[in-house]
Amino acid sequence: MTPPPPGPPVDLRSDTVTRPDARMREAMARAEVGDDVLDGDPTMRALEEEVAGLLGKEAALWVPSGSMGNLIALCVHLDRGDRFLAPDRAHILEHEVGTAAWLAGGRARCWGSLRHTRERSRSERCC
């Protein structure tokens, strides 16, 4: 694995946070590409294999968004009607809970902090 280029870090929280610079655009233009549905994309396959190796796993799966990754995880781990825990203010509670219920059949339960003394605890606020 090659070290990252010098300069500011790439922020992967959202595709709208980091804008590609000239070097990134050049790398995208030179990348070997394929159809991930028909015959596989060699760049994505290489990335998945490298990550699987780094994590000591049999395989890895790249998904285009954190929301998609969360939904896949819920679908894999839940049966219809199961509950899942998420911390107060978690993205899945704030922005994805309808999708979790609709597509994965799961019901969210907030796992709040009881550190607050002057206000209701987080678990009381979100449950």
Describe the overall structure.
With 127 residues, the chain is mainly alpha-helical. Helix content is 40%, strand content 8%. It has 6 helices and 2 strands. It has helices at 22-30, 42-55, 66-77, 91-94, 97-103, 122-126, and strands at 83-87, 107-111. The protein has a two-stranded parallel sheet with strand order 1-2. The protein is globular and about 45 Å long. The model is unreliable at 114-118 (pLDDT under 50).
Q: Can you describe this structure in just a few lines?
A:
With 127 residues, the chain is mainly alpha-helical. The chain is 40% helix and 8% strand.
| Major sheet details | 2 strands, parallel
Structural class: mainly alpha
Shape: globular
Radius of gyration: 19 Å
Mean pLDDT: 81
Helix content: 40-55%
> Number of helical segments?
6
H/E element order: HHHEHHEH
The strands making up the biggest β-sheet line up spatially as 1-2
Which percent range describes the beta-strand content? 5-15%
Report the strand count: 2
Distance between the termini: 44 Å
* Poorly predicted parts: 114-118
Question: Which properties best describe this structure?
Answer:
127 residues, mainly alpha, two-stranded parallel ribbon, 6 helices, 40% helix, 8% strand
Question: Which helices and strands, and how do they pair?
Answer:
Blueprint: H1 22-30, H2 42-55, H3 66-77, E1 83-87, H4 91-94, H5 97-103, E2 107-111, H6 122-126
